[in-house]
């Protein structure tokens, strides 16, 4: 389920065409699972890696910190943007 929300969030962030009710479905899944929180698009301005992550997720090269994510490859704080449905 998170994977579906993540995919939709990634598309929203890239302003891609969404299927008719894709955004509504993702929004409904988030409402049904308030513990998920909104996904964030995390991007390193140095190596340009981008991931769509929930607040409790790490995915290399990004490491979760108390405030946002850190790119371990570049040793810099990554930019992150919350995706609102
Ligand atoms: Zn980086």
Description:
- The chain is of the alpha+beta class and 85 residues long.
- It has one domain.
- 27% of the residues lie in helices and 24% in strands.
- The protein is built from two helices and six strands.
- It has a three-stranded antiparallel β-sheet, with helices on one face. The chain has a three-stranded antiparallel β-sheet with strand order 3-4-5, with no helix packed on it.
- Strand 1 and strand 2 form a beta hairpin.
- Helix 1 crosses helix 2.
- The chain starts with a helix and ends with a strand.
- The structure holds zinc ion.
- Zinc ion (ZN) binds next to loops.
Concise structural overview:
The chain is 27% helix and 24% strand. The chain is an alpha+beta fold and 85 residues long.
